[in-house]
Amino acid sequence: MSTRKLLAPQPNPETDAFWDGLGEGVLRIKTCESCGQPHYYPRHICPHCGSEKTRWLESAGCGEIYSLSVMRRGEGAPFAVAYVTLDEGPALMTNLVADDLDTLAIGQRVRLAPQASDADTVGDGPSLPFFTPSGD
Amino acid sequence: MSLRNAACIAGAFEHPTRLAPDMTTPQLHAECAAGALADAGLSLSDVDGYFCATDAPGFGPISMIDYLGLTVRHTDSTEMGGCTYIQHVAHAAQAIATGKCSVALITLAGRPRSEAVQRFRPGAPESAFEQWVGLTNHTSYGMCAGRHMHEFGTTSEQLAWIKVAASHHAQHNPHAMLPKVVTVEDVVNSPTIADPLHRLDCCVTTDGGGALVVVSPEIARTLNRPVISLLGAGEATKGPSGGLALDLTTSAAAQSGPRAFEEAGVTPADIKYASIYDSFTITVLLQLEDLGFCAKGEGGKFVADGNLISGSGKLPFNTDGGGLCNNHPMFRGGITKVIEAVRQLRGEAAPAVQVPNCDLAVATGIGGSLGARHGAATIILERQS
Ligand SMILES: [Zn+2]
User: Fold this and answer.
1) Fold of B134-204+231-383
2) Between A and B, how many residue pairs show a Cβ–Cβ distance under 8 A?
3) Is B196 an interface residue toward A (CB < 8 Å)?
4) Of B316, B217, B224, which Cα lies nearest the Cα of B272?
5) Which residue of B has its CA nearest to A11?
6) A37 in contact with B, Cβ within 8 Å
7) Is the model's pLDDT at A2 over the cut of 90?
């Protein structure tokens, strides 16, 4: 596992439910009752149509790698930065975990693998939406 | 209203330093301002418009105008990352065309090699969802390169040709940070920083800066300098847009470029010299496609075999050595792109890389993070006869 510090996200009223969900192993994205389109990262107002009628939607936490880049230098290297396109539609920026980062490839199927962040003081912070190959 | 011939670049100055431990950032701004004004044949008292971005310390234009001793009637602190200063030229032309000022000074400076610099303001809405990812520019642009390779079969060797071309130009620039000519093998054999980008796919980090003076056409004709006129400008931004529009193989230059060409009334085939923002080799490749110098996906073939080298290639680019080999002050290559375009149009580039009869040039740039969210700015410049 990487030794780099995983910065704890700062809670705020717009996104608290996202972090609460992830603590229970659930990836919540937002969808819009006005235009019907989902989005990530979650906002109060829909970025597609401007409607306030957004609500939380449970993602199945499955998707495929859109692109990735393995950082080879600096603190905690190597680690994989990636975009994963969720089956529900939105792509999200994430870290991929795998025994061998060199086996990761664009198009590969991945699933949610929550990873604890490093709290500002001691112990664990909120869980982060990491992904890992799902083998399907 | 069109910006076509609305304003001219009368002064351009690139600070010769690449490492400035014994200077201050405001001092660098002031030296760049003095250099560009002297180049134009103007003085501080002629300036009535001032443009800067977040590299300017303190309270932006309010601090710097007082520090520099300016008296202005128009200010603009538009911020769009490294390409900001290309955009500032267009915004200065807008201000001049609407009578808000007649002599606009644009400055950039910073000392990232000599002091800790803050590059991002905290509190971005995406921060909680991205800061832990450890995204740096290397992985951001690496993801763009990786996706381009996946979709179009672009190779590391093709990307390397962009660095090779820049190095061929840098050998003729006595101020270049990396004046040594490199080969494709040198680039692909340099250590991988973030897949698939190697150390030599990356630009340099330098202390330094630059300045530009943009004036009304009437003033330009009174100065003892070639008249370099703005023909067209475009700007755009692009991001994942809620995750449904993620597309790492096309940049915002696909919008800023055509807007600039349309306003100018010229096409990419007319361009004699191109300044293309080169934070990484992939940055250049995407912009060449997005501006229409070649079709989407054909950038790898376009840049291969020295096609960007002045004198032998079809499209001479970044003849100062660019950010890849010469200078990328304060992590921002926008102003140096405009400065080298001005040199080419005046016939003042290094003789070995000067494009013959260079009367039409483009300067284009990307700001922010190409793989996350970014802006683009493009200007078309012409030497008036
Ligand atoms: Zn909506």
Assistant:
1) Peroxisomal Thiolase; Chain A, domain 1 (3.40.47)
2) 125
3) yes
4) B316
5) B128
6) yes
7) no
The second-level CATH assignment, the architecture, of A16-133 is Beta Barrel (2.40)
pLDDT tens digits for range B226-260: 999 999 999 999 999 999 989 999 999 999 999 99
DSSP collapsed to 3 states, chain A: CCCCCCECCCCCCCCHHHHHHHHCCCEEEEEECCCCCEECCCCCCCCCCCCCCEEEEEECCEEEEEEEEEECCCCCCCEEEEEEEECCCCEEEEEECCCCHHHCCCCCEEEECCEEEECCCCCEEEEECCEEECCC
One-letter amino acid for residue A54 of the chain: T
In DSSP terms, B317 is beta-bridged to B274
**pLDDT tens across A37-82, in order?**
999 999 999 999 999 999 999 999 999 999 999 999 998 999 999 9
Flag if A68 and B246 touch (Cβ within 8 Å).
no
Query: Comparing C-alpha atoms, which of A79, A78, A83 is closest to residue A68?
Result: A83
Nearest C-alpha of chain A: how many angstroms from B138? 8
Best of A57, A81, A84, A127 to disrupt the B interface (most B CBs within 10 Å) is A81
Provide the shortest C-alpha distance from residue B86 to chain A (in Å): 28
Section B291-295 average pLDDT: 98
| The CATH number of the domain covering residues in B8-114+207-229 | 3.40.47.10
Residue ranges per domain, chain A? 16-133
Give the residue among B295, B290, B291, B304 at the shortest CA–CA distance from B362: B291
Residue A20 contacts B, CB cutoff 8 Å: no
Task: Assess whether pLDDT exceeds 80 at residue A123.
Answer: no
| End-to-end Cα distance, chain B | 24
Task: Specify the pTM.
Answer: 0.97
Q: Distance from the CA of A42 to the center of ligand 1, in angstroms?
A: 12
Secondary element (H or E) of residue B17 = none
A79 has a chain B CB within 8 A of its CB:
yes
Does A119 have pLDDT greater than 90? no
pLDDT at A1: 45
Show Cβ contacts of residue A127 under 8 Å, excluding neighbours closer than 6 positions: A19, A22, A23, A114, A115, A116, A117
**Distance of CA B366 from the midpoint of ligand 1 (Å):** 29
Domain ranges within chain B, ordered by starting residue: 8-114+207-229, 134-204+231-383
Report pLDDT for B118.
77
pLDDT of A103: 97
Distance A56 CA to ligand 1 centre (A): 13
For residue B248, which residues of chain A lie inside 8 Å, CB to CB?
A: 66-67, 83
Q: With an 8 Å Cβ cutoff, is B129 touching chain A?
A: yes
Share of chain A above pLDDT 70, in %: 98
Quote the tokens at residue B58: 């303190």
Structure tokens at B43: 């003085």
In this prediction the ipTM stands at 0.96
